[in-house]
C-alpha cells in the first residue's frame, strides 16, 4: 500500500498552527534564572502543521485548514509554510491578534522538550462553505484542535469516502465526537480516554466508538496496533536522539502519506505504513529543531 507511482497524493490537514520558538539548552532553567541557549529555531508548528510539512517532504500535496490571522507574526508563519509547499486555508484571516506562540526548551543531552503554548484557544473557527471541495483529497487528518471544525470536516470527509486519520495526542473534551468519523487513530502514550489505563484498553475504547484501525506510540518503544482480525507490534528504529520535538507530527504526516494509496487497508499494509512512518520520525529526531531533517537523508 502507498501512493500511486507517478502521482502525488493530496492530503487535507485540519488543526493547529503555531509559531514555534525553539531553544536548545543544557538544562531547563529554574525560577528567576536566565541562561544562554546553544541554538534556536523559529518555524511554523502545531501537530497538523508538522504533519502537513512531513507529507509534503515525502512527495505529497498538503493543504492546511487552520486559523492564523493577519498579525505580522502570522505572516512569518505563512511564509515558512509557503516555502515548504504547504497550501494554507486561513479561516481567521480577518483576525489581527497574534497567532499562538509555542515556547519550547529542548535539553541538549537528552532531546527532551518542555513546551508552553496557548494552542487553539485564540480562535473559534467555522467550517467554510466550500468544505466539500476541500475534502476532495486522498486522505484527511485531524489533530483534535479547533474541535468543532474538525468534527464537521471529518464527517464530510468520511461521508465522501475519504480515509480519515486522527492524531490523538491527548484526550480533550469533545474528542469522542470525532471518533465516529475516524478510520485510523494513532495515539500517544499520553492519550487516555475515560476509563482506560493501557494501550489495549485505549484501542478497545476506540474500536467501540467506531475507529477501525488504531495504534499507540511510546517513543522508542514498539508501536502497538490493532485492527479487524488482530494486531501486533511495529519496531521503532534506533537513533541517536537530538530532539524529540515534533516527532509525533512527522510520524502522522508520514503515515498519512503511506496510507494515501487506493488500496484498502489490511493488517500487513497498516503495519508496513506504521513502520515506514516510524523510520521517518526517527530520522527527524536525529537533528535539532523541526526543519533540519527536511534537508538530510
UniProtKB/TrEMBL annotation:
It holds the Pfam family PfkB. GO terms for molecular function: kinase activity. Coiled coil: none annotated. InterPro entries: Carboh/pur_kinase_PfkB_CS, Ketohexokinase-related, PfkB_dom, Ribo/fructo_kinase, Ribokinase-like. Residues 13-292 form the Carbohydrate kinase PfkB domain. Keywords: Kinase, Transferase. Belongs to the carbohydrate kinase PfkB family. This is Kinase. It comes from Streptomyces fuscichromogenes.
